[in-house]
Each structure stands twice: as structure tokens, then as C-alpha cells.
Please model this.
Amino acid sequence: MFTELTGVIVTFLLTLLIAFPLGRYIARVYRGDRTLLDFMGPLERFIFRICGIDPTKKMSWKEFLKAMLTINLLWFIYAFVLFLFQGKLPMNPDGNPSMSPDLTFNTAISFLVNCNLQDYSGETGATYLTQLFVITFLQFVSAATGIACLVALLNGLKEKTTQNLGNFWMIFTKTITRILLPICVVIAVLLAFHGTPTSYDGKDTVITMQGDTVQVSRGPAAGMIAIKHLGTNGGGWFGANSAHPLENPDYFTNILEMVAQLLIPIAMIFALGFYINRKKFAYVTFAVMTIGMLCLLIPTMITEIHGNPAIARMGIAQPMGAMEGKEVRFGPAASAFWSIVTTIISTGSVNSMHDSSMALSGLMQLLGMMVNAFYGGCGVGILNYYIYVIIAVFIAGLMVGRTPEFMGHKVEAREVKIAALVTLLSAFLIKGFTALACYVLVYHGNAPWAVKPSAWLNNPRYHGFSEMLYQFTSTNANNGSGFEGLADNNVFWNVTGGIVMILGRYLPIIGPIAIAGLLANKKYIPESSGTLKADSLTFGIMVFVVIIIVTALSYFPPLALGPIAEYFSLKA
Amino acid sequence: MKKYILPGLKLSAVFIVLCSGIYPLLIAAVGKLTPGGGKGETVSVNGKVVGYANIGQKFTEDKYFWSRPSAAAYNAAASGGSNKAPSNPDYLKDVQTHIDSFLAHNPGVKKEDIPAELVTYSGSGLDPDLSPAGAKIQVARIAAVRHLDRDKLNALVDRYTQGPLLGILGPSKVNVLKLNIALDELSHGGR
Model:
């Protein structure tokens, strides 16, 4: 047990050790300072030249969003076509079929929006062509999109008054050439040396020691698994994701993949401090997010290490803890840690099956996705946090009775309305669609879909409800993990999931950038004794309290019906 | 709109070449230098491949160390867990079946000594490992079936136990496939 706990602690400390200097480096990249990777300069200039892009051209917040949304639309069309016809296209050694139209809709959106929900299984549902040319591609560009949007926000905060949020294409390109791609090469090589396959060969057939004939799925997976974590995407090469022994072969790769997914979200917090030169604000933000993570992590680790009380009552020893859905080489401690990290950050990769987690762990995983701002996904985590900050600024302003300011700009009705709408959107999508699913399940249980609604759920009672709640929480948060017992490859879940993913991605990006653009246009107000100190510890606590109140008010009822009820039923 | 489409198209093409073409090819080239040549590391007995080192396989015969229950039936062209909730009554009956079957094949073993991993499904359905305790509890059965000395078998398990990473990180584990190959060798060569 001791070595399992040290494994978790060392993993987190190692992440911080790398994230801090990386944050400084990231700030230098976007400032245009000299860095180690300046040898990428000629390649970038070549890219800009052949694409007809002037990287120095300024963009207002509206132009920035137009450039971002246009290129995203192009990617959607590209992904849709390839998934729909993958069965007839080359690079398909296993002979896997094309996707159905509703699955195509869901999957194309899923990877486009950095969600990586998978209603298919990698071994049988995708081809090497789509794994590499659609999924891996979208994993790079969707992460870069999120980061670029955060940099736009920071550009708005950095200047006293400006119209310019930066050039989308330039920031986007540099994000891939200077940050994502170089780090991915390192991660992928390490994975390859620990047993993750890299070759383009198809399935192999072996006869086992007991004489069974078994087929073994393989493929050039290491590169995808690197960006899947570094870009907080989460979509796995194999169906079992990072629980699969080729996708995550040993404890070293488990640490590597954990560090990879935590790295950029944490580094971006430090980068923020260096870039807009408000280091104290960055440290307070880091503290708030870390405390938030610990509040979810500690109960989860305790309950998983304690084991399943129902199995304990059968008289079975659980020396490691709860083992259902978990792998021996990771153990319950590292699995619990992973399950929280992957849900607070919008990765959504798993190294254990969340559907089989203890009830309390399921509750914490859901809360992590509902808040979606304790570190959060690449770039978007801080955008989500910014929305909570604006709400906190507003409430603080009400408490002292004056128009609040944030970093030198008055926060007025229009900005607060946008922030409130973005906050309410999540609660509306999650609860509204879960209610719809319950309605269909109860009143149209025999609808003639690929899976009848009456057969959707893999578990009865409270946990069955949690499966549906988890699905929409995950799609709204663009997380992508699932209570995978849910039979989700049918027209209902594919279509509703796709809609929720799109809304849950773009509105929480458009909102903060609009606010940043509007604020940056306003007159700069120098700090005075009456200014709200955004980088004070008091304000950090204020934001934390706002997060708790908003989340509790929005989600207590469905959580009570699902994991909380299951928790008490297990106790009895 | 047009001034955003054309750069968008070209930029996408560039990154498709870079991220989907060149990058995986580069990794595949490096992968050729790894132990399995990037195709996955195989294990052979007498020159015949009997499995992949990292991929668990079904062991249900009494003469072998059993592997964990698998919701994917150890089909490595698929993968996945049971996704059963800890509170699910049907699932708990399933666990009870595993317990009963284990006790029937391992007379003399006390129920409270069975480690949970032997009666629960793994996450991938392809878990290649057991905990050292999960292997040692099967020693008595194997010793009886193969007429081997228990101490020798316990020593074999110890020899095939991989301790925590760097001695301090993560759990100990035993690779069931490698352990069973060594077990066959012990039976044939040792007596």
C-alpha cells in the first residue's frame, strides 16, 4: 500500500517539476522571445508563406472567433466524410466497416471538440486511416484551438486597452510546432520502448498455452496515445483505453501518461502568470484549483483503497482495495488518482472502468466534470475558470455596492450576462437531456433503435440513472469518459450527445473571448484603494466559494438521485 | 468568410501531413529499434509464439496459475470491463460464482484469504498480471496436480514477482504467462 501512495505523490510532484519551467517556456513562445526551439522558425515561416497567412496581422475578438470557427467547420466536414467511408478507404488491414451516419455524426463532433467520447470501440470501429488521419489530427488541432483561445483571452488581459487579441493562425501554428508536437515525440518514443506498438501491421493470430486461438489487435498507437494525453483529448486507440495493456503497459507508462495529461493544464496557469505579468494571480489560481482537486481526490482514494463493502461482506480479502474494473499493475490508488485527474481535466481517458468505481468515487468524478475548471482541459480549463471569476467579481461588487473592476476594466451588465448564460447552459444541458433520456427510457422503452431504450442500462436502480447522468455530464464537459456500461451506440445517444458536445464546446469558448474582447476595449482604470484585488488570497477564496455554490445549486438534485442514493444503499 | 476559408484549408492540409503523416512514420521508425520491433513483444516456447508478453490470456486449467476473470473472454481483438456497479445484485451473484468455483478447485483455501482480483473482472479484460498473493494462493492446488514441492513453487512465484518501479512506486505484480511458462519448464526439467 505504501508504494502505491508514493507512486501517486511522486507522479504529482514530478508534474509540477516539469510544468513550472514549461509554463515559463510557453509564455516566451507566445511573447515571441528567443527559445530553445527557434529552429522551428523557418518551418513556421514556410507554413505561413504557402498558406498565404500574414502572422503579424491583428485580429479583433470577432475576427479571431471567425477564423477559429471557420477552420473548425472545415475539420468537421473532413472528419465526417472519412468516418462515413472508412471501410472502403485504404489503411484498413483489419477490414473494419464504415460508421453508420449517426455514429459518424457523434464521432466527428467528439474529436473535433476535444471531447473524445467514443461510442465505437477502437479495435473494430475505426481503421488505421481514421485513427491517424482523422483522430490523431483532430487531437492535435483541437488542443491547439483551445490553447489559442486562451492566449486570445490573455492578450486581452495583458494590454491596458486594445482591439487586438492576436492572430489565430499564428498562435495555433506555434502551439503545435513549438509545444505539442515536440513533447509528443518524446512521450511516444518512451511509450514505444515500454511496449506500445508503433508499426502499421494489422491483427496477429496466436495459439495460447491452453490451445485457444486468439487474435491480437495492434497498430501505430504510440503517437496517438501521446497526443491523446498531452492534448487532454482522451480517446483511446483500443476500446479499453489506457486500461489496455498495450496502450498503458506498465507503471512507468502510467506515470508518463498521468504527467502528460496534467502537464499543459498546469503549465498554462504558470504561463498565464508570466505572460500577463501577474504571477501572484497565477499562484492563487493554482492554489484554488489544487485544493479543489484534493477535495475530490482524497475521498475517492480512501473509498477505493477501502474496497467494496458488498464484497467485504462476502468474506473476500481486499488487500489492495476495490479491484473490479481495475488492473493489477496500477492498483486502486493510482486508478483512483487517474479517475479524478481525467475528470477534472477534460481528458476522459481511463485506466480503470469508472462504471465499476465505488459510489462515492462516481460522485467525485461527476463533480469534477460539472466544475470542469480545476486545471481543466488544454486552454479551456482556464477559460471556464475565468467565467467563475467574472461571476465572483460580480457578486463581490454587489457585496460592497459598487461597479466591480477586473484587472483594470469595469465589469458591467453585458459581461455578467454572458458569464451567467455560460454557467446556466451547462446545468440546462446536463439536466435537460438526462431528463429527456429518462422520459424516453420509461415511456418509449421499445423504440426500434439499434439498442432499445429498455436495454440501455447495464446496471439497475440508482446506478442506472447515474449512467445516463454521467453520459451528458461528460459530453457537456467535453470530457469523453463514460460509465461505459451504457449502450450508447444508437441514434438517440449519438445524436443528443453530438448536440450537447457542440454546445458545450463552443459557447464556453465564445463567451469568455467575447468578455475579454469587450473588456479590453474599455478605458483602463488604474488601481486605487477601492480596486478589487484579483490576485489576493481573499478573492481566491471568493472564487472557490462561488464554484461550490454554483455547482451545488445546479447539480445537487440529480446527484442525490444517482451516486448519493447508491452510496447510502451500499452502506445499509 | 472567404478570407478565412482559404488559409484554413491550406493550414489544415499542412497539419494533416505533419501530424498524421510524418509524425507517426517517425515514431514507427524509432519503434523498429524497440524489443518487439514496434509490433508488440511476443513470448515463445521452443521457438513457437505462445502469446504477447503484455497481453493476458485465459488460464483455467488446474495445472496452471489462473489469470483473472475477463469480461472480454481474453479476446485481444476486443477489450473492456464488465462495467458492473458495486451495488448491482446480479453482479454480486457473479462474484459469488467466482468464489465458489475457486474454492471448489482449491480445497483447503480459506475464503478470507482469496485476494479480490481473482474474483473480479479487470478493466481491460486482458490483465496480464496477478498480485503475488493472487499467485501464491494457487500454489497448493498446483503442487498437488503436478506433484511438485510447494516451497519450490513459492520460490518460483517470488522469482517472477516484479517489485514496485524503482522499489518505491506502485504495486508488485506477477506476469501470469511468464510464470506459467516457467512452471512448465520446472515440471519438465525439475523432476
